[in-house]
Amino acid sequence: MATINIYLFHIIIRITIVAMSGSDKERNMDHVLIIGINGTFGREVGIALKAAGVQVSALMRHPSRLPAALEGVHVIQGDVLDRSTLAHACEEVDTIIYGVNPPNYDWSEKAIACLEPVADMAERKCLTIVFPGNVYALDPADGPEFDEQAVQRPRTEKGEIRRAMEQRLQTAALHGAKVIILRMGDFIAKDSGTSWLPVLIREGRRGITLASPCAETLRRTWAYVPDAARVVIRLLQRVDELEAFNLFHFQGMRLSIRDIAEAMEDVYGKRVRIKPFPWWAIRLASPFSTLCSGLIEMRYLWNEELLLSDAKLRTFLHRDVPSTDIRTALTEYQQG
Prior knowledge:
This protein is of the alpha/beta class. It has a single domain (2-189, 221-255, 306-325), classed as NAD(P)-binding Rossmann-like Domain (Rossmann fold). Helices cover 43% and strands 20% of the residues. It is built from 12 helices and 15 strands. It has a 7-stranded parallel sheet, sandwiched between helices. A 3-stranded mixed sheet has the order 8-11-13. A 3-stranded mixed sheet has the order 9-10-14. Strand 4, helix 4 and strand 5 (128-133) form a beta-alpha-beta unit. Helix 4 (107-125) packs parallel to helix 5 and helix 8 (257-268) crosses helix 12 (326-335).
């Protein structure tokens, strides 16, 4: 009889712990930590979260660099590699937006190192991680259409790193974390340091020049990041319906350089001339610049179409996927 009573006592304790954990989780559901809030993805998701009334915190090495649009966000000063600071930043949150992007394509030393403590923290605290995926681990030769079932066959070191990062997140999902990867193409956003557009567009007295890194009619997947950020909000609002590991493609806009040039002429009211992108100059500089060598390494992505299909995302969100057209996006881009 005593053994049965002890057994029942343990069951009651376990039920109580689960119930208390559930109530804590409910209270903290609307508190999100952004790591990499200065980056394009982190900033735009932060703006969308604030607009949705979600409490937002940010882990930053330099709090003075908080984007003006995110004034009022609670900032914890520190580095993602400092595990004690990271633990403090995660005390009251339920979700982490991972927007860390190593500068100048210096991924080999920093990409996995920065992700590891975050993945470990998410495992131990059963947090949700939102991770911005890209197309680096996909081989355009397998396309042009790619859905979430596409086999990853990276051609480059950066592709291998991205595959390893996603594999680490899959492991985290097996050990308590919930993972949402939103795979996107090239970014379009205001004040973006990770977008091709500022590199390709040059405005002068005689009009606008748009450099083309590829054939003018070759289509690419472009992600208007405010749209992607709104998708993140919709996914987080239904996070309880998701599996432990979730990969979604965001189709965004399928555009060629010629499509962009025509849209720019409509929006800016100026002639847009298309000229070849100076790959030769990037190649000359690549021995002296990790950024340039990284661009050369990933040049193959401009040689063939690689188009993301988001049928899975549209099905899950009942087709409620934001889709800003290129002309509207360029208008907002110009205003930024």
